[in-house]
């Protein structure tokens, strides 16, 4: 039933996802008293808008660039994976950083049209460097920009300079706001700009299990895409390669992140949702397709409730 509902793009599907996302966000926020008082509610509303926008941006990227067929599996999987790691709902910096990276990914995927390439490279680089101000290691996604340049517009040397211009722009903005904040931004930035391989952060067993299950699912979807990449249309292969690379970078960001927790996996969820959408839509057996979505949905609900 789940597969049959989301196998087409319907406005009702967005209502379902939006409603469920709101319920999950409010439930977790109330349970953990994340956003209290009128000011907290205001900020909570803004962060919810950011995460809801991220959901619909994933859907837009998948459909607009033909990374999935005319279905809503990508946005569904993105929501389900959020349930695996509900700490994302309270990690404000990661919410904002991930949203900015999705804006960057949107521009990089659209490079295949070969229109306004320089503007797209600048925009993508700008969003990535801006995202790094909220979560330092998201800066690694700049490698996706250079990979995109190699795939599409490597012959024009000016394209290699554009990310540097974007970096300079973000640095100027950063120091302007840093002066206003009496150097607090600079101190906070350097406080988390180091590599940490400390994986002893788990607050409960369910976080550990959720990570293990997510890793297994990620490996399955990743390998499936690698094995089926050769069957993709020639004009789509570069786009899928970017999604694969984005997933790898998302995992590396998690591995490198200081102050590590499961919410750092947010950077890998969007590309994995697109990889998963391809896996599901390619299943010809309807029972297997429905079964996969039911299992993922039940796992998401279980891990979410267990971590409330």
UniProtKB/TrEMBL annotation:
InterPro entries in the cross-refs: DUF6427
Specify one Pfam family: DUF6427
Q: Does the keyword Membrane apply?
A: yes
Give TM regions: 12-30, 42-61, 73-89, 126-154, 160-180, 208-227, 239-257, 263-280, 287-306
Q: Which UniProt keywords apply?
A: Membrane, Transmembrane, Transmembrane helix
Recorded superkingdom = Bacteria
Name of the molecule in the record: EpsG family protein
């Amino acid at each position: 039933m789940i597969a049959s509902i989301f196998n087409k793009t319907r406005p009702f599907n967005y209502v379902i996802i939006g409603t469920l996302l709101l319920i999950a966000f409010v439930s977790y926020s109330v349970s953990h008293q994340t956003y209290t008082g009128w000011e907290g509610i205001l900020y909570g509303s803004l962060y919810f808008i950011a995460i809801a926008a991220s959901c619909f941006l994933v859907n837009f990227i998948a459909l607009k660039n033909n990374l999935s067929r005319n279905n809503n599996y990508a946005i569904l999987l993105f929501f389900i994976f959020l349930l695996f790691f509900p700490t994302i709902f309270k990690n404000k910096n990661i919410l904002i950083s991930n949203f900015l990276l999705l804006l960057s990914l949107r521009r990089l995927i659209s490079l295949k049209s070969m229109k306004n390439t320089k503007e797209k490279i600048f925009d993508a680089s700008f969003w990535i460097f801006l995202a790094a101000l909220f979560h330092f290691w998201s800066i690694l996604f700049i490698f996706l920009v250079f990979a995109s340049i190699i795939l599409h517009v490597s012959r024009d040397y000016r394209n290699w300079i554009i990310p540097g211009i974007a970096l300079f722009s973000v640095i100027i903005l950063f120091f302007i706001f840093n002066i206003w904040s009496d150097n607090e931004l600079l101190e906070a930035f350097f406080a988390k700009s180091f590599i940490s391989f400390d994986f002893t952060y788990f607050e409960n067993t369910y976080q550990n299990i959720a990570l293990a299950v997510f890793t297994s699912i990620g490996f399955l979807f990743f390998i499936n895409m690698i094995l089926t990449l050769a069957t993709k249309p020639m004009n789509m292969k570069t786009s899928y390669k970017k999604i694969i690379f984005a997933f790898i970078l998302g995992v590396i960001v998690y591995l490198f992140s200081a102050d590590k927790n499961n919410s750092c996996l947010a950077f890998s969820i969007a590309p994995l949702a697109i990889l998963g959408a391809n896996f599901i839509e390619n299943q010809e057996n309807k029972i297997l397709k429905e079964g996969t979505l039911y299992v993922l949905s039940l796992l998401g609900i279980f891990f979410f409730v267990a971590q409330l």
